[in-house]
UniProtKB/TrEMBL annotation:
Listed name of the protein: Rieske domain-containing protein
Keywords: 2Fe-2S, Disulfide bond, Iron, Iron-sulfur, Membrane, Metal-binding, Transmembrane, Transmembrane helix
Domain of life: Bacteria
Pfam families listed in its UniProt record: DoxD, Rieske
Taxonomic path: Bacteria, Bacillati, Actinomycetota, Actinomycetes, Catenulisporales
Region (Disordered): 207-232
Comp. bias intervals (Low complexity): 221-232
Positions of the Rieske domain: 235-330
């Protein structure tokens, strides 16, 4: 019977934290690998589009040039980095190294995606950084592969020493090498399984996209009346190309998206495609006919730029428009 005065082992307190962080980063990694648009530089809400927008608002925007120039490489690095951090955290394998990687990723997200979140506590990335820092300081617990491999190696070494009558100190370096080799083997096995899982998730995402009907593929590429993808010199678009619902997408010289929609009174509205919550580029939700932010879920009315659902509080920036000869022109101020 358990002694009522006996306290719970303190390492147990970290298990819920490890589980939440590991599962969340595992989900985030598979979500990126499953979404073909994430690595498609031409897709709304892709890694390349988000990086282009964040360069103007992030305090480390100067360092985002290589990521914007090589979106496929850096997008995969982020996805597989999240996957490695997740598995290391869940299994307790290279615990401190995995936690340090989590701190680095979370701080990067905080300084880019979440930097403009106001107040700051509405953005989760800083909280993730602090949580991973806690795991890095605590190190591996009894319920981790790190501790299990070290304990198993010590037990084997003790058995060998008892048979060969060797002094304990003579094999300490051998114990360390044995633990490192076992960790390396466990890392290889885990990495192999993870790569197979990532490949399967990626294949499911691509097959799901290719299995769509031609009409669905057009919608996903923003070429239907619900979300027309148009890039015109000088931010011009034929009024006939502006859909009755949803919005048409233009691209400003800076690379930022601009959306044009028909208003209820028969006029036209042009709005910035940069979310007012954290500075992420937004896209069109074809099913609902709204502008949606892929970062934190804010939605906006394309006919007015008003917030429909938060966490964004401010409406999208509006731009003046003029119509002549069946062509709509958007006047975007130079930045």
């Amino acid at each position: 019977m358990r002694d009522p005065g006996r306290q719970l082992d303190p390492v147990v307190y970290l298990l819920p934290l490890r589980g939440y962080l590991g599962v969340t980063y595992l989900y985030a990694a598979f979500q990126k690998l499953h979404d073909p648009a994430f690595l498609d530089a031409s897709a709304s809400g892709s890694f390349a589009v988000q990086t282009a927008a964040l360069k103007h608002s992030s305090p480390i925007g100067f360092a985002l040039g290589p990521a914007h120039g090589h979106p496929l490489v850096f997008g995969l690095l982020i996805a597989f980095g999240e996957l490695a951090v997740a598995l290391g955290t869940l299994l307790g394998l290279w615990t401190r190294l995995a936690a340090a990687g989590g701190v680095a990723l979370a701080l990067t997200f905080y300084l880019t995606v979440s930097w403009n979140t106001d107040p700051y506590y509405l953005g989760s990335d800083l909280g993730f950084a602090v949580a991973f820092l806690t795991l890095a300081l605590a190190g591996p617990s009894r319920w981790s592969l790190d501790t299990w491999l070290a304990t198993a190696s010590k037990g084997q070494a003790a058995a060998v020493r008892s048979e060969e009558f060797l002094p304990r100190r003579s094999s300490s370096s051998g114990d360390s090498r044995r633990v490192v080799l076992k960790r390396a083997a466990a890392t290889g096995i885990t990495g192999g399984v993870a790569m197979l899982g990532a490949a399967a998730v990626g294949k499911l995402g691509r097959s799901g996209r290719s299995a769509q009907s031609p009409q669905a593929q057009l919608r996903s590429n923003a070429n239907t009346p619900n979300a027309t993808n148009v890039t015109a010199p000088g931010l011009e678009i034929a009024t006939a190309s502006i859909p009755a619902t949803g919005a048409a997408r233009l691209t400003a010289p800076s690379g930022d998206p601009v959306f044009v929609a028909r208003t209820a009174d028969g006029g036209y509205k042009a709005c910035s495609g940069i979310c007012t919550h954290a500075g992420c580029p937004i896209g069109v939700d074809q099913a609902k006919g709204v502008l949606a932010c892929p970062c934190h879920g804010s939605t906006f009315d394309p006919r007015s730029g008003a917030v429909i659902n938060g966490p964004a509080k401010d409406p999208l920036m509006a731009f003046p428009v003029s119509v002549a000869g069946g062509v709509l022109r958007v006047q975007v101020p130079k930045t």
